[in-house]
Prior knowledge:
The protein is mostly helical. It is 57% helix and 5% strand. A three-stranded antiparallel sheet has the order 3-4-5, with no helix packed on it. The longest helix has 24 residues, at 173-196.
Amino acid sequence: MANIPYYEQKNRENTLRLREMIKELPPFCSDFFRGIEPQTSSRTRIAYAYDLKVFFEFLKKENPIFADMDIRDITLEHLDQLRVTDMEEYMEYLKYRFNDKNKEIVNKERGIMRKMSSLKSFYNYYYRTEQLKNNPAAIARLPKLHEKDIIRLDIDEVAMLLDEVENGDALPKKQRDFHEKTQVRDLALMTLLLGTGIRVSECVGLDIQDVDFKNSGLRIHRKGGKEVTVYFGDEVEEALLNYLEERKHLIPEEGHENALFLSLQMKRISVRSVENLVKKYARIVTPLKKITPHKLRSTYGTTLYQETGDIYLVADVLGHSDVNTTKKHYAALDDARRRSARDKVRLREET
Length: 351
């Protein structure tokens, strides 16, 4: 699998995993996953399979009709008998439940919304294909979402974060020992995330040949496999060049020869490793903010919007398929810009 691009490897792994997950669901579910395949990514379908398993487990545990049934024996006829009250009971169940290992799982508003969204898509498919007469998921009232403030780094915090990555002065001694081995890589990685706004999955999926210094561009694969070019500035270029000079002397494990960013095990760095890396440095600089790679992406989007005022440009660069997603994230900045206009126009000269 050495010559297979990273995103194709992940799709292959996800497809094989999904096949195993579908085996635990009622047989008719296979039609649903085939039906949504053209419009969804493999990761999305895995999320649907997980959410549907939770729903069928709920039916078995909480509904007497299904108590003595195996999940695989549930039919579309059974689903057609469910009503809105069953959907409401399901949402109540999702708040606090226990998994197979008797571990309590708590779902807040957004977790419940996501699982209900999966169920809505599921019911909509069978209702649209006229295999179900009733669609209680479509008319169930969902919990009200309370908007959260978007967490991002301020300009001075960005500079402090990169300084800490470069110097590592505030790291514990044990981490400083590792820092000597990873400093150049970490600085390149963090500068890239902050300087382009790419997703962490897009970052770890980069191969060496995806970097085009002539045109200052990166070839990345967006959600759904769409290939696009994202451009970077001088700071990112300098950090990448420094890392690639060091990268020349590393000997990757078989199958990881093309990976841009390598772990200490000489394998393609993982999403989890990047998340831990960001957390390690960020909690030193801004301990009250829970900074993740996605927050670095929000930081980039905020800065780009503040500099350009072009929401469509921000949406395009961040890879949002719907500009309303971008507007939702940066609505507060729009309001701040509108407020700044109040003193810009003078109706009479001051005397």
